[in-house]
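Hey, can you fold this one?
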Amino acid sequence: MAIVKNTSLILGLLLCFYACKKKSWDTAVTQLTLPYVGEGMYNTVLVDSFDRVFILGGDRFERNDFLQSNDNGATWQVFHYNAELYSNKVLYAGTIRHNMVYAVGYDGKIFRNPDFRYDQWLLRQGDYFWYSYTGIAFGSDQNGCAVGHAGYDRGVIQRIDAEAHSLQVDSFPFAINDICFVDAATAYAAGYGALVKTVDSGKTWQQLSLTNDNYRAIYGIDKDNIWTVGYNGTIAHITQNGTHFNKVKNGQNPLGNTDRYRDIAFKGADGYIVGEKGVVMYTSNAGKSWSKMKKFTSEDLHGVAFHPTRNTVYFVGNHHVAFKTTVGN
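Sure. Predicted structure:
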């Protein structure tokens, strides 16, 4: 019995050493100087090939924040949409599609910006009160989906056109947190203990057999290479056209760490996962292995995004913090 106990102790110590060992950043992580807009958070960051960077967030019950930089984060402008009729509340997610930027948030709001001007945001929808819209993605030139939830047991996926007009609304008995398209018509949506898939641009949905975590973010590299991360610390790789699931890190493992993940992004073989208390995971080999990076902030990190043409990655989080560094560490 003593041998078994000692073996278990040694195994636990080794696991702890592996989990606690952190990788240093090869290039300094710098904090961006942003306009102060009061209490609140930044939830998502978007970057395009023209050096435009968009940060979305705000105060949950008081204010929306649209920040834009046209010079890769050197200078910034901030805009607050006066949506008093529909409530001025926080933004949770967004996406860039061709010549349009979209943002979604609390109370089911959907905004669009057709001109890439920091003060030209237009409110398209604000009628889904009590739903938090936390994800939006497009698969073709015409159709996309916005997703959200009202608690753990009520989810919604709304199919929209390029102008953000509603085409169809589907309800689910679990929260839907995020969505990604992997081709013109195929998308995956992640939620509370569930993953769903469409092959017809959101007209119909099929539930898949990935469970046991509150999956907060999903990223599709291609139709056979999708990643999702959970609030309990799961990192899952989805392959074979959505039929095979590999939990690279199982959030239900009692010997694992207690990281809470919020977002994931890839560019080529480089990938980052961010989460609460400043946690950052990094892979340089397309997810075959992940390293925990040394912390550069203790704030919760909510969003991560790569510059599509430059060697830069951005992070945003609580208390209006935003950072950038050079990719590859």
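The mean pLDDT is 90. Let me know if you want another pass with a different chain boundary.
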